[in-house]
Amino acid sequence: MASTYKPEQARVPPAVQLPVPPVTKFKIALCQLSVTDDKERNIVHARRAIEEAAEKGAQLVLLPEIWNSPYSNDCLPVYAEDIDAGGDASPSTAMLSEAARSLQITIVGGSIPERSGDRLYNTCCVFGKDGKLKAKHRKIHLFDIDIPGKITFVESKTLTAGDNHTIVDTDVGRIGIGICHDIEFQELAMVYAARGAHLLCYPGAFNMTTGPLHWELLQRSRAADNQLYVATCSPARDAGAGYIAWGHSTLVGPFGEVLATTEHEETIIIAEIDYSQIELRRTNLPLQNQRRGDLYQLVDLQRLNS
Ligand SMILES: O=C(O)CCC(=O)C(=O)O
User: Fold this and answer.
1) How many CB atoms neighbour CB 183 within 10 A?
2) Whose C-alpha in 40, 49, 149, 157 is 20 to 30 A from the C-alpha of 104?
3) Hey, whose CA ends up nearest to atom 4 of ligand 1?
């Protein structure tokens, strides 16, 4: 028997209308930075890369996961900064704020280890072009993995998981933030899409095991499932490091297409985002209207509880 289901009768919360973005087309820069054990050098180096990206026309700059410190449980507590205290207590975010203001760009500042009281987080700060902190995302899903002979890493040994989604309105559209392992959880991306995100940014440092298999696959899936843009930014690979990053920072469009990518060396990718493609793809293939709200539903618990 034919189904009698009608989307308009489903008891699902109405989808948020895609907000009109302040710009339709703009350039994004993905700064795949080399990271050393010298924090001061890492900050100066990131500042130079941001400036170069802005000179090349980028209005949005994305940095890698943990760009001011080596990515190891030993280093995270030593390199951690008190972001809320600001100033000298957080030279990395002070630099990001200054760079955003003086270059008049939006910065999704990768992530740095954050100290808050006696806890440590893996935290991404978003700065507007006035230099103000617009959002702070603490990595929600910590990366604990054990594949004997390949990779064992227990991020939860030192870090505490964040408890909030982070979606932020910027001069370059509505952006949902996730950090690295957060990309594995499609529900988070779906919540961001339901809240009207144009773009998801994931600073990430995948590794030599899950990187080749999952990194691009996950980005393309999050973009195609939700019909929006996905940008990722990794540190450059250091083959001598304790944790070897996969690299391959990438921009994916709303049809799941790779628009720009790279290998593992240090580089700055500059690519164009055109938000009109989102509407086009959602018209071509109206997934939103085809959802079966009578069979399954997405529940945004954060919104429900707020
Ligand atoms: O999810 C993965 O496979 C890798 C995640 C990761 O490297 C991280 O969260 O730091």
Assistant:
1) 23
2) 40
3) 206
Is residue 81 within 8 A of residue 69, CB to CB? The reply is: no
Q: What number is the ipTM of this complex?
A: 0.95
Domain 23-288 carries which CATH code?
3.60.110.10
Q: What are phi and psi of 148, to 5 degrees?
A: -50, 135
Ligand 1: list residues with CB < 6 Å. 143, 180-181, 184, 205-207, 210, 214
Q: Whose CA is nearest to atom 2 of ligand 1?
A: 181
Cβ-proximal residues to 42 (8 Å cutoff; 6+ apart), any chain: 33, 35, 36, 67, 68, 69
Note the pLDDT tens digit of each residue in 247-257.
999 999 999 99
**pLDDT tens per residue across span 196-253:** 999 999 999 999 999 999 999 999 999 999 999 999 999 999 999 989 999 999 999 9
